[in-house]
């Protein structure tokens, strides 16, 4: 009887936790990280007391979202390493990790905001970098990428694609995939054909809008 009474409470607690995390992602995406735990609770439709039972403060929510992001990216990398085709594995990992990191603006901010502390950066480095290193070395071992490719190239390319996504979101949300395809063609050794570009290039006017969208008049 005791176990039967406790199970609904555990399910409710888990559901409230997921509601709070989902609400935090949405608020972080639209308003940045300055929102309060009270804001998150109201957006999630749960009581403030419930929020504080699940998380002591906003930092714990950020930590939970960061941990979820690292876990999902690591899972994508491990699945890519299981693919016997090193090129297909590398491409799949980049596509999935970019979608996860940059398709969720709140998570993107958490994963890439330098102001959030060295501990999180170090954690990401320790857990994700070795997996990316394995993906790159395996691809080089199979001779499917240029021999001077380094794991850091993938990291910096993802940072660059993050900036492209953020600046072009209102014009063409999938524009970053075009530049991912260009990057992939630049590192592959089989150049008898080219990967099809997933979307068109922006016009000159659209490019100007994307590059100046955050500037105030006169800047």
Automatic annotation (TrEMBL):
DNA-binding residues: 36-55
Ranges for region Disordered: 195-219
HTH tetR-type domain span: 14-73
Alphabetical UniProt keywords: DNA-binding, Transcription, Transcription regulation
Highest taxon in the source lineage: Bacteria
Molecular-function annotations in GO: DNA-binding transcription factor activity; transcription cis-regulatory region binding
Annotated PANTHER family: HTH-TYPE TRANSCRIPTIONAL REGULATOR BETI, HTH-TYPE TRANSCRIPTIONAL REGULATOR RUTR
UniProt name for this protein: AcrR family transcriptional regulator
Species name: Actinopolymorpha cephalotaxi
């Amino acid at each position: 009887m005791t176990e039967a009474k406790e199970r609904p409470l555990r399910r409710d607690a888990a559901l409230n936790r997921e509601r709070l995390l989902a609400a935090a992602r949405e608020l972080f995406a639209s308003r940045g990280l300055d929102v309060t735990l009270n804001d998150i609770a109201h957006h999630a439709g749960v009581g403030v007391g419930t929020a504080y039972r699940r998380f002591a403060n906003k930092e714990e929510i950020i930590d939970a979202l960061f941990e979820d992001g690292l876990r999902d990216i690591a899972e994508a990398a491990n699945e890519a390493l299981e693919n016997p085709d090193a090129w297909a594995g590398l491409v799949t990992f980049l596509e999935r990790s970019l979608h996860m990191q940059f398709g969720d603006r709140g998570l993107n901010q958490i994963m890439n905001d330098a102001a959030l502390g060295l501990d999180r950066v170090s954690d990401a480095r320790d857990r994700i970098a070795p997996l990316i290193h394995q993906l790159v070395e395996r691809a080089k071992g199979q001779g499917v990428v240029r021999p001077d490719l380094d794991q850091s190239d993938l990291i910096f390319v993802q940072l660059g694609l993050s900036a492209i996504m953020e600046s072009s979101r209102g014009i063409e949300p999938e524009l970053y995939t075009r530049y991912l395809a260009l990057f992939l063609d630049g590192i592959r050794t089989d150049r008898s054909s080219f990967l099809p570009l997933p979307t068109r290039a922006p016009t000159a006017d659209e490019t100007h809008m994307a590059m100046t969208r955050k500037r105030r008049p006169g800047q």
